[in-house]
Structures are given as structure tokens and as C-alpha cells.
Amino acid sequence: MAHIGSVVLKVADARRAAEFWTRTLDYELVNGPIGDESPVLAPKDGNGPTITLDEDDRTHLDLHVTGEAALRAEVERLIGLGAVRVPWTYPPGAGFVVLADTEGNAFCVVDTGQN
Questions:
Q1: Among 112, 103, 29, CA closest to 63
Q2: Where is coiled-coil annotated (predicted)?
Q3: 10 Å Cβ neighbour count for 74?
Q4: What is the pTM of this model?
């Protein structure tokens, strides 16, 4: 079963947002310097989901699973619960699927086992 791996926040200024959220939640930058396309912040104690800051994408959850079979199974399970596939142009070898919940909120199911 999937778990919340990351909360993706749409931000206008990644540097400003990173400063605010790292100080607010006692998180730290774990994915390159601020200014990367999507900086990732993580709890210093390792407990809890990461926060991905994105200036282009909309706010959404990334649900994590490990392995391609788990990804396929979780997507089918979620569709059975009422989720729908969102039309999306996937890059080659994409390890994620974009779905929408019963209220139309987009979210991703991500295979974290991919390199």
C-alpha cells in the first residue's frame, strides 16, 4: 500500500519557501542547492514526508511505492476506490502515474525503487 512520500507545494519563490518551511518544520534541504528545479526538504529526524518545492507544478501529494509491480497494483487499487487517470504526457521510463481523487485533486503514485 502507498504512503505519503512527499507533499509537492507550488511556490513562486523556491528560496523564500525553503527558508520558511525549513525553519517552520525543522526540516533541511536534501536535494541540491536552492534554485534547483524542485528543491526537496526533509525532516532532520528522518520521520515524516518530504516537501518538494516546485515553481511550475500545482500542489499535490506524491504517494510512494517500491517496484513496478507495486506501482501497477496500487494504481489499479486506487482506481477501484474511485480515482481516475489524468491525461498526462509522460517522459520515457517514467516511474510514476498521475491520478485524480474523487474530488478532482491530482496526485502521483511514484515508484521509489527506480533509479
A1: 112
A2: none
A3: 21
A4: 0.86
The grid coordinates listed for 49 are 514526508
At 86, list the grid cell: 489524468
* pLDDT tens track for 2-42: 999 999 999 999 999 999 999 999 999 997 767 667 899 99
Q: What would you measure as the largest C-alpha separation in the chain, in angstroms?
A: 40
At 47-94, the pLDDT tens digits run: 999 999 999 889 999 999 999 999 999 999 999 999 999 999 999 999
Cα–Cα distance measured from residue 18 to residue 60, given in angstroms and rounded to the nearest whole number: 17
Cα–chain center distance at 1: 16
What is the rounded CA–CA span in Å between residue 29 and residue 114? 22
